[in-house]
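[step 3/7] inverse_fold.run input=structure_tokens len=258
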């Protein structure tokens, strides 16, 4: 684990794990699924833990902005720990002490946080009164956890994670059809149904559900029969899964890529 505290008292971390427990079925657990947490060394209490991130794979990295002064003091004194939990050991499987000297308990970082907030409050005070985690992007406020397509490029999806905007380029799934077309309003090419004899029923499907399927992940409509990679904030697009819009029912069907 690599951990650092910057001048704004934001915690930067990068964690790489190996050799943690997996279930017998290696195919299902090819990627490690776990949680990384930071807390204070006090065995009597497990409540003083903060989630750093949930991860799928062997790495976890990110920035934690709203750390309590208490936890920053523990980091300064060397009485903090980073803990990794897995599905098999949800209470924690591996833990290490962390010592990151910092001067945040003196309140140096608190002033910076307030100054940042004041700048944004001037833009739209009502919106930020409701939620301090709002993101401001392209002259618009976005709620924490929301997703949208940015104005600068329709082939991106952005999400707001506690005042931080993360934008990911859309990943197009590989098509198996012989002929493809590129719709003007879409980022990804689709199969040319007119030239594909096996897609004769597509017309009937469209009549039943002309609007297609709504995907909660990227918060977009997808036409019947279209496939896409799911968008999972804050990780972005997941290449290891493909979702398809079932035109007859309007349902989204997702499965792992073999």
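[step 3/7] decode complete -> sequence:
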């Amino acid at each position: 684990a690599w951990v650092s505290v910057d001048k704004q008292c934001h915690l930067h971390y990068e964690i790489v794990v190996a050799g943690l427990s997996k279930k017998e079925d290696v195919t299902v657990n090819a990627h490690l699924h776990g949680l990384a947490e930071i807390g204070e060394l006090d065995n009597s209490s497990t409540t003083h833990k903060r989630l750093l991130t949930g991860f799928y794979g062997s790495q976890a990295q990110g920035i934690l902005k709203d750390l309590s002064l208490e936890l920053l003091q523990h980091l300064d004194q060397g009485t903090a720990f980073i803990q990794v939990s897995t599905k098999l050991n949800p209470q924690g499987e591996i833990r290490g002490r962390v010592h990151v000297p910092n001067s945040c308990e003196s309140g140096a970082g608190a002033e910076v946080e307030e100054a940042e907030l004041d700048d944004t409050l001037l833009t739209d005070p009502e919106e930020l009164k409701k939620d301090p985690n709002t993101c401001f992007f392209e002259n618009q406020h976005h709620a924490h956890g929301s997703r949208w397509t940015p104005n600068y490029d329709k082939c991106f999806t952005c999400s707001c994670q506690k005042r931080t905007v993360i934008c990911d380029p859309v990943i197009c799934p590989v098509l198996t059809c012989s002929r493809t077309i590129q719709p003007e309003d879409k980022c990804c090419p689709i199969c040319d149904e007119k030239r594909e004899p096996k897609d004769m029923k597509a017309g009937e499907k469209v009549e039943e559900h002309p609007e297609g399927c709504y995907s909660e992940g990227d918060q977009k409509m997808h036409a019947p029969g279209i496939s896409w990679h799911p968008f999972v904030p804050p990780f972005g697009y997941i290449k290891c899964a493909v979702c398809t819009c079932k035109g007859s029912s309007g349902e989204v069907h997702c499965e792992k890529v073999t």
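[step 4/7] annotate
The chain has a mean pLDDT of 75.
Residues 1-19+29-104+125-170 form one domain.
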